[in-house]
Write a structure and sequence with these properties.
The chain has about 250 residues and is of the alpha/beta class. The chain has a domain at about 125-200: Nucleotidyltransferase, domain 5, CATH 3.30.420.40. Helices cover about 35% and strands about 25% of the residues. A hairpin with a 2-residue loop joins strand 2 (about 30-40) and strand 3. The longest helix is centred in the middle third of the chain and has 18 residues, at about 85-105. The radius of gyration is 18 Å and the shape is globular. The N and C termini lie far apart (about 40 Å). It comes from Aquincola tertiaricarbonis. Its EC number is 2.3.1.234. GO terms for molecular function: tRNA N(6)-L-threonylcarbamoyladenine synthase activity. Keywords: Acyltransferase, Transferase.
Length: about 250
C-alpha cells in the first residue's frame, strides 16, 4: 500500500473526553487522506488519490480501523472533506461518509477542505502566522481561495471559500498583500500569482493529520450533523468548457 511516511504510525495519547473516537476521510484533492483515532491511539494514511480514490477509499478505511481494533460503530462521528475541490472527489467522500454513518447510526462532520490546507500550513510554519490565505488550483485558470485566522484554539473563516479567476485573485492580493499563502495554486501558476513578501507553503506535509485535528475541533464545537443532511460544497457548476471556450482561454493565455 503506497502511503506517506506517517501512514499506519500510531501516536499514543491519554484517552480523554477531549479525544473522541473519530474517523476522517478526504478525497477533495489529488491525495487521498484517511485518519482515525480511538483507545488513545491515532493512525493516518496519505496516498495518491484522484481517479484511484473511489477504489481505494473503503479499503484504506477498513485497514486503519482493523489496525485500531475498531469497527465503524465504535466511532463517535465520521468526518469528511466537503469541499471545495475536485467534483468526483467531493462526491466520493460525501457518499462514503454518509453510507458509513447511516450504517453505524453516527453523525457526520463536514470539514472545510481549504481549512485543512491552512491547518497543515500553520503546523509547517510552527504557528508563525495567525492568518493563512489558501489558494488551490481549480484548473481552467481558476483558483479555490479562502482566508483563515487561528484564534482561541480554532480556525475562524475570514473569507469563505470562493472560486476566483487567476487575474482577479492576483489583483486582490496586490491590493491587500497576504503574510502567508498555502496551497497547490502556488506551484500551478508560479509567477502569475504574485504573493509579494508572503511566506509560501506550496505543498502539504500531512493532510491526514490536519484533517483529524479539524475533525476533533468540529466535534468539540458541536458541529456534528445528521448524515442525511451532508452535502458537498460545489463552487463550480460548470466543470467542462466548450471547444470555443478552450480556444479562447488558450488565446488569452498566449
Amino acid at each position: 500500500m503506497s502511503s506517506s511516511p506517517h501512514s499506519a504510525c500510531p501516536t499514543h495519547a491519554e484517552a480523554t473526553p477531549a479525544s473522541p473516537a473519530l474517523l476522517a476521510i478526504d478525497t477533495s484533492t489529488e491525495r487521498l487522506a484517511v485518519a482515525a483515532q480511538a483507545h488513545g491511539r491515532q493512525l493516518r494514511l496519505v496516498e495518491p488519490g484522484g481517479a484511484l480514490a473511489s477504489a481505494r477509499l473503503l479499503p484504506a478505511v477498513r485497514s486503519l480501523l482493523a489496525q485500531l481494533g475498531c469497527r465503524v460503530s465504535a466511532m463517535q462521528a465520521i468526518a469528511f472533506g466537503h469541499g471545495p475541490g475536485a467534483f468526483t472527489g467531493l462526491r466520493t467522500a460525501c457518499a462514503v461518509a454518509q453510507g458509513l454513518a447511516l450504517g453505524a447510526g453516527r453523525p457526520v462532520l463536514p470539514i472545510d477542505s481549504l481549512a485543512i490546507v491552512a491547518d497543515d500550513a500553520r503546523a509547517q510554519t510552527q504557528g508563525r502566522h495567525d492568518t493563512v490565505h489558501v489558494a488551490m488550483d481549480a484548473r481552467m485558470n481558476e483558483i479555490y481561495a479562502g482566508t483563515y485566522r487561528w484564534a482561541e484554539g480554532r480556525w475562524q473563516v475570514l473569507q469563505a471559500p470562493a472560486l476566483w479567476p487567476l487575474a482577479a485573485l492576483a489583483a486582490h492580493w496586490q491590493a491587500e498583500a497576504p503574510a502567508c499563502v498555502a496551497g497547490s495554486a502556488l506551484a500551478a501558476f508560479g509567477d502569475q500569482l504574485p504573493t509579494g513578501g508572503a511566506e509560501r507553503v506550496p505543498t502539504e506535509h500531512d493532510r491526514a493529520a490536519a484533517l483529524l485535528r479539524l475533525a476533533q475541533q468540529a466535534w468539540l464545537a458541536g458541529e456534528a450533523i445528521d448524515p442525511a443532511l451532508a452535502l458537498p460544497l460545489y463552487l463550480r457548476d460548470k466543470v467542462a468548457q466548450t471547444t470555443a471556450e478552450r480556444e479562447a482561454a488558450k488565446a488569452a493565455a498566449a
